[in-house]
Amino acid sequence: MSFRSATAVGYVEDVSPGSGALPPRAWYPTSDAASLSLNGSWRFRLSPTADAEDDTFAAPGYDAGGWAEVSVPGHWVLQGHGAPIYTNHLYPFPVDPPRVPTENPTGDHLRFFDLPADWDPADGGTVLRFDGVESCARVWLNGTGIGEFKGSRLPHEFAVGHLLRPAGNVLAVRVHQWSAGSYLEDQDQWWLPGIFRDVTLLHRPAGGVRDFFVHASYDHVGGAGTLRVDSEVPGRVTVPELGVDVATGEPVTVPVEAWTAETPRLYDGVLATEGERVPLRIGFRTVGLADGLIKVNGRPVLFKGVNRHEWHPRTGRALDLETMRADVLLMKRHNINAVRTSHYPPHPAFLDLCDEYGLWVIDECDLETHGFTEQAWRDNPVDDDRWTPALLDRAARTVERDKNHPSVVIWSLGNEAGTGRGLTAMAEWIHGRDASRLVHYEGDIDCRDTDVYSRMYADHGEVERIGRKLDGGTRRRRQLPFILCEYGHAMGNGPGGLADYQRIFESYDRLQGGFVWEWIDHGVEDERYGYAYGGDFGEELHDGNFVCDGLVFPDREPSPGLVEYKKVIEPVRFEGDGAGGTVRVTNRYDFADLSALDFEWSYQVGGESVASGSLAVPALAAGESAEVKLPERPVAAGSGETRWTVRAVLAADTGWGPRGHVVAWGQFPVSGRQSPSFVASAGPVVSGDGSISLGPAVFDARSGALRSIGSVAVTGLRLDVWRATTDNDDGAAWRSDIRYGALWRKFGLHRMRHRLDAVEPSAGALTVRTRVAPAAWEFGLGTVYRWSTDGSRLRLTVSVTPDGDWTVPLPRLGVRFGLAAADRVRWFGGGPGEAYPDTRAASAVGRWQSTVDEMQTPYLRPQENGARADVRWAELGGLRVEGDPEFWFTARRWTTEELDAAAHRSDLTPGDTVWVNLDHGQHGIGSQSCGPGVLPQYRLHAKPAEFSFVFSDIG
Ligand code: IPT
User: Strand pairing of 85-87 and 189-191?
Assistant: First the structure.
């Protein structure tokens, strides 16, 4: 005898997509038919298993007075019931498809509602729509079961008109965290059960609109658009601006302006059936493959994209419209032109925003079975016919919902699901249903089912080979264009190497760009840590901060990676040599001319702008260049370091950015920097009290340690090679590249010893000879500090001579010291933000000021950050430092060791000392937390080096 009521919850482990739901159809945000949002506060009861409670709660009259409340849309685990779990690709339950654990958190939800007075349930029908529920739901209205469904990020509609009452309706929804569907939803993100998208009741008047398909193509030769709206329920289509008034199903061709992501021209129309009027926003464009390239309206496009997961640090994947708009505006302001909706269809309103503001979209099905990689893909659902109906259901719900968006140009079958017949079936279905778009799936290495060759994290060399068509592959693949659907892993500090990728993309037609991984850090707002990540909720299995790999922080503050990306992909290129008096301006848009932009110049002397004006640039068409004359130099040559800065800015307010918003810029030196002049005068004076004085400085006579410069106390100045390893330094285990973070620790670069060999006062200088080396190893750095003075200033020259067998590059090479009170910082050099050798495109030379606190980049897992590049001089804490040559400048209120040990922002407590690093070199950043490591040209090899700083007390 079995006590487990297998039948009652059998649907949970059933591979089918569900039962009772209506066929999928187009989603539209508004119509003149009545609708009632059921969002809000719902009654909620959490049970530990799928069958712990019977279904009596669904019956009218059930007393849920003792239940908790949750907000819908929302995830119960983010509302105090249970906890989120983060795994990258491992299933957090035994892999035994389609079975799920007995421990299956199950949330019963109740919503009571009345119909508005003017809503007569007897007139026409009513549909109940769920836009997203994770992962499996069973639904009752007024005690009658209406069905159950899986497919978390997909809409499901049920006909409920016959069950509705004018008042006192009871909607009951039982949501199971785990179901057979969970096997198809193994995306790298938090597992977050709940009703996390809108729940809406839609009146369906007699003769109301059902499904419809807007076909709006553009003939780039003739400049005409052809519109045909196929509608299940016949009606008329009007577009007043175009004088269009046609029957559904009837094509009409009219002159139009095309829709592109750069020029998102939409025409307002109406689909009117007998019973309903649905507003349409129509964008005319034609997507296709021609000459082996993805072309829109006859022109190839270059994707400058990001992968976007839905995320909000408090509400998880339940996003409101303003949060979605914030993402779109931020993307547009950072020159991003494309989004891959990794790895599921987003909230449908997001696509309306993409249509409106202009973003190319790869719309991806809600499908990933990545965890099967652990068993060499054995039993992978996508290669098992029993699962194919569920896969086809997912494809249909995606395509039918989103087919009317001009922004959607490519359908993606899913992510990281291996290969199999189910995927082929999806591709065939999509191709048959919508021939007007392309099909993508990265796992299809031979492109049997797809129209684009796509890869993730391929290194620069391989991408270049693909660009040159030297990559081989099947005959079909060789004829297809290439995109990197993921690259530039933005975890922590980085990604490095973006500019190098962009140069390659721009050099070969076949390469049509890529999508940085990923848009936002999925940090969970948390009292303990500021932001929590994997493991912070006591998960048995987790992948730590691998979920924090975005270009924006959880609060949507841009990280330096986004600022870098904006510069790397800017749509206007300025080239020239400042001395020549001209600048070459290239329009790198794919469609738009430059008429939306104004151009400005400014002229800097010593980093300070002394004159500025506007620059006349012709309204170049996409792809065109022109040589533009700069004005007469405002200041005669020979007046120190001078440079031009030119900018392209928005000429007028747009929907996404204000007039004056900087879109692109370039800098061109006219006359270069001269080394700081310095003539050594006085020599060191050894006094009886155990100190040595040299100009403004005092040293310890025994150790040679610097104590002060004038009134400024200096502690611990010595050579430093260590940095708190970044996520990219630490690297991902599955990459074959050498992981330097681990090697650096193995070789003890974080615990270098400093042996004092000599303190040598001489006529012109104080020389301190040392050897810097780690315990246990034979390699080291002979390090000589040579101090001199010109009477008022102090100069330090550091000479470094490696000895022994150095097999790893250095994390950094420079000096570190502590200062007492320092807050405000001024510098002349690269800024305003952080930069490293392979993340320095956005670093502009100028005079900057900030504070020590503001110079920190608050990566969720603390790590090396905050360096400013090319610094000529910097001032802080009463000290001025001039570099010879320029240096990397970093200042922080904790030591590198404290930074290295911290796991969360909350672990860092400012001390009294500000630690300053002046670096001659920094190792690059790379993208090895998932992608390739640091390119050879950005590695900091141990080799003989000499660099100087001139210090003065400006207190
Ligand atoms: C790739 C996944 O597609 C993506 O979802 C994410 O996990 C990313 O990596 C890393 O953050 S898969 C990778 C292991 C090749």
Answer: antiparallel
Ligand 1: which of 87, 88, 89 to mutate, most ligand atoms within 8 Å of CB?
88
Protein residue closest via CA to atom 4 of ligand 1: 188
Q: Are 519 and 585 a contacting pair, CB within 8 Å?
A: no
Of ligand 1's listed atoms, the one at least distance from the Cα of 489 is 11
The 3 state secondary structure assigned to 773-794 is EECCCCCEEEEEEEEEECCCCE
Pocket test residue of 367, 370, 416, 485 for ligand 1, highest count of atoms within 8 A of CB: 416
> Is the pLDDT score of 487 beyond 80?
yes
User: Across all residues in the chain, what is the average pLDDT?
Assistant: 96
Structure-block tokens of residue 342: 């990794």
Cβ 88 under 6 angstroms from ligand 1: yes
Asked if residue 86 has pLDDT above 60, the reply is yes
Query: Cα–Cα distance between 20 and 143 in angstroms, integer?
Result: 15
Spatial distance between the Cα atoms of 202 and 746, rounded to a whole number of angstroms: 63
| Cross-strand partners of 57 | none
Q: Does ligand 1 lie within 6 Å of residue 213's CB atom?
A: no
189 lines ligand 1 (CB under 6 A): no
Q: What pLDDT is stored for residue 637 in this prediction?
A: 63
470-498 burial, b if ≥16 CB within 10 A, otherwise e?
ebeeeeebeebbbbbbbbbbbbbbbbbbb
- Strands (E) across 143-266 are located at 144-150, 156-159, 169-176, 189-191, 194-195, 199-204, 212-219, 224-231, 235-239, 244-247, 252-255
DSSP state of 99: B
pTM summary value: 0.98
**Count of all residues that appear for the chain in the document:** 955
Span from the CA of 13 to the centroid of ligand 1 (angstroms): 27
Higher-confidence residue of 733 and 404: namely 404
Contacts of 907 (CB under 8 A, 6+ apart): 862, 901
DSSP secondary structure, 434-496, as one string: -TTSEEE-TT-TT-SS-SSEEEES--HHHHHHHHTT-S---HHHHTS-EEEEEES--SSS---
Report how far residue 878's alpha carbon sits from residue 888's, in angstroms, rounded to the nearest whole number: 19
Instruction: Return the C-alpha torsion angle 390, 395, 400, 402, nearest 10.
Output: 130
3-state SS of 500-568? HHHHHHHHCCCEEEEEECCCECCCEEECCCEEECCCCCCCCCCCHHHHCCCCECCCCCECHHHHHHHHH
Task: Look up 416 and say whether it is catalytic.
Answer: yes
Q: Are 260 and 479 in contact (CB under 8 A)?
A: no
